[in-house]
């Protein structure tokens, strides 16, 4: 069994990292984000509740240009985990 050189090992690692970054970029392009108004309306909560959730780090968010954005995938996943009959899906 030939011994791999450090360069070959590093090249393999770089290729793997490049694939991972490309997958993340593709996923980010397909992600849907909710803004404050969307979350408030969908879950019938107040501004202060949403603020408290952000402060307590109960929901993931990002701030872009003064707007808070929330990944739809988080809410979908959270709701799916709470379904009583999820085994039927």
TrEMBL record:
<protein>
    <submittedName>
        <fullName>Helix-turn-helix domain-containing protein</fullName>
    </submittedName>
</protein>
<dbReference type="Pfam" id="PF12728">
    <property type="entry name" value="HTH_17"/>
</dbReference>
<feature type="domain" description="Helix-turn-helix">
    <location>
        <begin position="33"/>
        <end position="73"/>
    </location>
</feature>
<dbReference type="InterPro" id="IPR041657">
    <property type="entry name" value="HTH_17"/>
</dbReference>
<dbReference type="InterPro" id="IPR009061">
    <property type="entry name" value="DNA-bd_dom_put_sf"/>
</dbReference>
């Amino acid at each position: 069994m030939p011994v791999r050189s450090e360069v070959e090992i590093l090249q393999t690692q770089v290729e793997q990292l490049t694939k991972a970054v490309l997958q993340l970029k593709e996923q980010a392009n397909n992600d849907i984000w909710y803004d404050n108004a969307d979350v408030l309306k969908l879950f019938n909560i107040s501004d202060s509740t949403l603020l408290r959730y952000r402060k307590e780090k109960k929901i993931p968010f990002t701030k872009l240009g003064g707007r808070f954005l929330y990944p739809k995938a988080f809410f979908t996943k959270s709701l799916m985990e709470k379904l009583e009959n999820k085994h039927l899906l």
